[in-house]
Amino acid sequence: xxxxxxxxxxxxxxxxxxxxxxxxxxxxxxxxxxxxxxxxxxxxxxxxxxxxxxxxxxxxxxxxxxxxxxxxxxxxxxxxxxxxxxxxxxxxxxxxxxxxxxxxxxxxxxxxxxxxxxxxxxxxxxxxxxxxxxxxxxxxxxxxxxxxxxxxxxxxxxxxxxxxxxxxxxxxxxxxxxxxxxxxxxxxxxxxxxxxxxxxxxxxxxxxxxxxxxxxxxxxxxxxxxxxxxxxxxxxxxxxxxxxxxxxxxxxxxxxxxxxxxxxxxxxxxxxxxxxxxxxxxxxxxxxxxxxxxxxxxxxxxxxxxxxxxxxxxxxxxxxxxxxxxxxxxxxxxxxxxxxxxxxxxxxxxxxxxxxxxxxxxxxxxxxxxxxxxxxxxxxxxxxxxxxxxxxxxxxxxxxxxxxxxxxxxxxxxxxxxxxxxx
Length: 423
Description:
Layout: E1 16-20, H1 24-35, E2 41-46, H2 61-64, H3 77-82, E3 85-89, E4 93-97, E5 102-105, E6 110-112, E7 115-118, E8 122-124, E9 136-137, H4 142-155, E10 160-164, H5 168-179, E11 183-188, H6 195-198, H7 200-212, E12 216-219, E13 223-228, E14 236-240, E15 245-248, E16 250-253, E17 257-259, E18 275-276, E19 282-284, E20 287-289, E21 294-300, E22 303-307, H8 312-328, E23 341-346, E24 349-355, E25 362-368, E26 377-383, E27 386-393, H9 396-400, H10 403-408, H11 412-422
Parallel strand pairs: 1-2, 1-7, 2-3, 7-20, 9-16, 10-11, 10-16, 11-12, 18-21
Antiparallel strand pairs: 4-5, 5-6, 8-17, 13-14, 14-15, 19-20, 21-22, 23-24, 24-27, 25-26, 26-27
């Protein structure tokens, strides 16, 4: 291999690329490299032993038992073979020498490459002191959802579930478990669910869905401990800061994730709440990052912003984008400039968001009512006179009308007036 000074140009078509991370972004990057004409050696490293799979169904269809795990696969063994991938599943990357583009794996082996894709994603935050406590679970992997299902089945009819955190994952788990007949309580530290992402008014409206479907939601509360309860084995007690004790058979912790960057300490890359990347997703010459682990320079609303976005659609697009960037070379690679999109299915409704809302944005409801019992509405977000985002609850046609405006950098007032002009 040449020195790093030689590596700003296009990727050699017959070189070696290592993709570390075999979830959505990593798989899309590997497939994208083939689509872009890369014919060289392509190594896909994944910490889990499973074939690449989709995570969103885990908190819904798989947890509910309406899907088998196999339905979540992004590709089967034959499709991976057709892509000519060297798959190293069940192996974790433990270190990287960025200057040499050399990856060390947990079995002591190393791989040297002409280029590297970092797609190691993120891992759930856990409540301190609960790591060894039976019945306290997180939800990120196939093993996680299996553990939750087994705990619910062990508890039997009337299983009591406490969900800590009313974000999107926590709310989806609550909705799925309530639909399966469990008694569910959701605990949220903020005064309104999702307030830090969607603003207090819209977050409170989304939070109303829990009560409308028989789920108890407690906001503004802090969990101080989870302890073994009165029954040996499964029963637990969740202790709040006001002394309240909540009985639970299962506790699911959904308090966010942290980017999986521990293996990159000392690598030579810049790390800070993710792998720091430029606007074309390069962390260094011929090293790119994609998915939940990547923090990149995003140009929108007439300025640049360093962002890390934890959503399926962005991860999918980033996987394809890093493939294009590597093949083009750092000097010619296009900027990654998406209109972020994500969704969450809860209680038979779908919450969809275009753009990137901020709780400090101006917010106006332009369709429906935040207090309506059917839970359906559309709200638009504005910042510095520009349209920044739009949110719809089971209003897909109305919501998608805002995508062209967000792509064009429309004004806040254009967003407010859009649906009125179509009526």
